[in-house]
Each structure stands twice: as structure tokens, then as C-alpha cells.
Amino acid sequence: MPNRRNFLKSLAIGSTLVASGTFPYEVLAAPRDYFKLTVLHTNDVHSRMEPFERGKHQGLGGAARRAALVKQIRQQEANVLLLDAGDIFQGTPYFNFFEGELEFKLMNTMKYDAATIGNHDFDAGMEALRTQAKAASFPLLNCNYDFSGTLMDGYTKEYQVFQKGPIKIGIFGVGVELDGLVPPALYGKTTYNDPISNANRIATQLKEKEKCHLVICLSHLGNKYESDKVSDQVLAKQSSHIDLIIGGHTHTFLDEPQKVNNKDGNEVLINQVGWAGIMLGRVDFFFRKDFRRRKGAGKALKVK
User: Fold this and answer.
1) Which mean pLDDT values do the consecutive 10-residue runs of the chain (304 residues) have?
2) In whole angstroms, what is the distance from residue 175 CA to residue 249 CA?
3) Is residue 10 part of a domain?
4) Is 23 among the domain residues?
5) How many domains does the chain have?
């Protein structure tokens, strides 16, 4: 009976991906030859703890429903990562009153694996951000903010390596320029450095030194702009070794990941799931046992 239930769960998941037109069909032909990694992600939750009560998003979102959906997927899949691309703070009275404490407690409860920092995560100042970073059970990742001489010095990491079954995953973060977005008094002596050169530096280290099978960038740069401002699209095109960019900042709703070729001609997936936690992003990667080939298939899931 357990084998039959597992089969039916796998069939249901596969049917969803086939319907979306993104399923790697060779997996169906030889499933025993593949390892699977499921990446779940959020961005720009903006302190939204409860479902929307009215408007076009009525009935969607809420921390409890997101937690239930994540739990369900973890029960179905062996290798799962849960990530966030920043702007955890700001948007409801919960933040104004608790200054991020509740947001991080809920993320700890949901067992997030990693997150990056968005511009609104400075909105209560460096001391409040440091307080929550100290309480977090997951790392805050960023490789282009220099926090030397600030209250956040030592409370972020450039990257983290995770092992999920036989799959080794390197994850790092990049953030948007703070000048013009955040009052200087709130980010103090934090120095913004070029996200593209630093992303390539870390991605190369993760692939060549750490020998990661997959490299994920948690980005709070924004999906794309009409100007030449640095974005996820620009980063992907100018990158090497990044396999997946999980984006934030522009509140872009993507039903499935965008595909962009990097400067070496290799495919990079870019995903972002709007704002306020009304969607949960999901990207499944399928690795051959020799790790020489992999496919990614993604779908945005409504939190309801």
C-alpha cells in the first residue's frame, strides 16, 4: 500500500508538470537513473502573516497555509530546500510592532534553509536586523554588501553549501543598491559592491572549488528594467556557473521559470513569485546519477 501511495503522489506531481509543458520527459523513461531536488521559494513576503480578506488576492496567502503546503511537499519529496529572496519585512502592522521578530520566528518554524536581504529589511534599522539575524535558524546570504564596521558585521555569509542526498548545492545572495531606496541612517556604513562580478566570483568558487552540482543565486535585484540597471536578466546573461536565480524586489509573478543563456551559452533559470506570500515557487531538478545531465521544471503554486 505505501508503494502504491507513493506512486500516486509521484503521478500527480508529474501530471501537473506535464500539463505545464515543462516536464523533462526522459525522466519518465528511466526514473531510476535520476536524483531529484525540489527547490521551494518565496520573495517579498512583506510581513503578510494572514490571507487577503478582500480584493483580487482574496483568500490567498497566509503563513499557516504556506507552512501547510511546505509540509505537504516535504512529505512527498526526499530532497527539499526552502529559500527566500528578501524583503521579509515591511507592509503590515506586525512589522511596525514587532520589528521583524514574528517574521523570523515563523520562518524558523517552517525551517527555511536560507534567505537573502532586501532593501526593506533595513526599514527598522541595523540593530533590529541584527537582532533577527542572531535569532534566525538559517543563514542570511549576501556577497555584495560589505558590512564591515556596522552592526551587521559577521551576521551574514557570502554563501552556504547544502547536501541533499547525493546532491551538493551552493547558494549565495546578491542585493540591490541601497542608495535612493533606503535612508542612509538605516544602513549606515554598509558598502554596495558590484553584484555581477561578485556573483561570478562566488559561483565560480562554488562550482570549481566546492564542486557543487547546482548553484543557486538568491537575488534582490529585480527581474528586469527598461533601463540598463542590473537585474536578474542582466545577471543571468553575464554570469557563469549559476544554474538558478531566485529573484525578488520587482514583485514579478512568473507561472514558470524564465530561461536565459549565460555568457557561456548555458541555460540559467530565473524565477520569482510576486509578493505577499500568495504564491510558493517550486523548481524540480532531475540529475542523472553521473551528474552530467540535469533538467529543471518549475511551477508557481497558489497558497490557499
Assistant:
1) 45 42 44 85 97 93 97 97 98 95 97 98 97 97 98 98 96 98 97 98 98 97 96 98 98 97 96 98 91 78 95
2) 9
3) no
4) no
5) 1
Torsion of CA 163, 259, 43, 177, to 10 degrees: 100
**80: three-class secondary structure by DSSP:** strand
Q: Which domain holds residue 255?
A: 31-302
- pTM comes to 0.90
The count of other CB atoms within 10 Å of the CB of residue 73 is 17
Spatial separation of the C-alpha atoms in residues 241 and 266, rounded to whole Å: 9
CA angle at 84 for the pair 78 and 90, rounded to the nearest 5°: 145
Give bridge partners of residue 282 from the DSSP assignment. 40, 299
Q: Looking at residue 126, which CATH number applies to its domain? A: 3.60.21.10
103 φ/ψ angles, rounded to the nearest 5 degrees:
-60, -45
Task: Tell me, yes or no, whether 12 lies in a domain.
Answer: no
Distance CA 204, CA 15 (A): 36
Which amino acid is located at 100 in the chain? G
- 57 lies in some domain: yes
Q: Are strands 159-164 and 167-175 parallel, antiparallel or unpaired?
A: antiparallel
Number of neighbouring beta carbons within 10 Å of residue 21: 8
